[in-house]
Fold this protein.
Amino acid sequence: MTTSATVRVMSAEEIAARAGGETPFLHWPERTSVFAEREMRLRQLARGHAMEDYLGFLALIAHEQQAALKSFPSVPLPDAQAIDRAARAGLPPLPAADWPRDPAWRDAARAMARALSAQAPTGARAVLERLAAEDDVYFERQADALLHGLGTGLDLATAPVVGAALQVYWTHLLLATRALHQEQGQPFGRIDEETGCPCCGSRPTASITRSAGESLGQRYLHCSLCNLQWHMVRIKCPHCLSIKSLAYQSLTAAGGDGDSAAATAKVQAETCDDCGSYLKIMHTDRDPFVDPVADDVASLTLDLLVAETGKERHGVNFMLLFGDPGGVPPPDHPPPEGRP
């Protein structure tokens, strides 16, 4: 049996005093290891977990994501003028809602579905085989539903694989654009929407605290789509930016010391009384192997307990979608016209 414990966030003065030095704004995913490390974390978390079978299946997905990213073909990227226009407008240069998706992402999704169907549990094979045979219209409609936060029309059975292919595509876009334009300067930077990813504008899955170098103790939001991480000071709510009523909640064993357990918990829910939302936060100083996506799924019990307090989940995780329209947070703006 588990319960939740609450700890108040440090004051602005305490965080400022501990920060020291200049904090890098961005942390980048590594092309050669981003999904491989997630696979290893999922396998580690799966052992003896109540969701062992599902976490094991997600590990298979992460394995195929790494293989797809390694061999992803060349696709159109924003040119210098497009990056400059986005920067001047305070917008992300590769917006999830508006970027014209290359057909290569659909090819990756079908290839992943075929590969997974040969390894997945028996009960999932029929769904994966169906997904591999779906037409382009189906894939684009599912992508629109996921990227615009629409519950209506979303196929929950195939969403993790469709979402996984979109993650591979946008992670490739991020890294390829950075490599193409690095001689002219950093193509990604701060945008007007602090809570949105500087690359694609997507919401975070969770946040993570860094435990090394100039980022020691600093909080980074982890993009749910392209895996980019961007810095946000810990005194702000990652949803409404309030600095008034943040608190941390964590799981504690029944009969345990709630305060001491909360102080050492590797995964917590950062709640805000002003907007009524929460976002999970992972601490690398307490577990260096935490992964925002994997540990978010594995800590589903924390979601259930925090939901009982009336708080609404702010984080987006394509591997942890719920069976109602509220499972995918609503979009910040309507879908573009012209999609199938």
Q: What stands out?
A: The first helix runs from residue 12 to 19. The longest strand covers residues 246-253.
